[in-house]
Amino acid sequence: MQLIAEREVICEQIIDLVKAAKAKGECRADLDEELATFCIMETLDEFSKKRFFCNRSPLEEIDYQVIVDMVLKGLR
Length: 76
Fold this sequence. Notes:
Number of domains: 1
Distance between the termini: 34 Å
Radius of gyration: 14 Å
């Protein structure tokens, strides 16, 4: 149950970030905050599973900017 509660807190924080980005014009005005949050969370979740459990690359070899760019470009 604690993991679910922690995930909810993270989701709320991301929703707040998406709202702030919309207010600044950094994201589409019609973007659904909750749906965008789920997309971000699931992208990170899937990436984590593959990179940390299947392909155990050292953390310094992971190109995080590629993930961030891919997610954020889709929200514009």
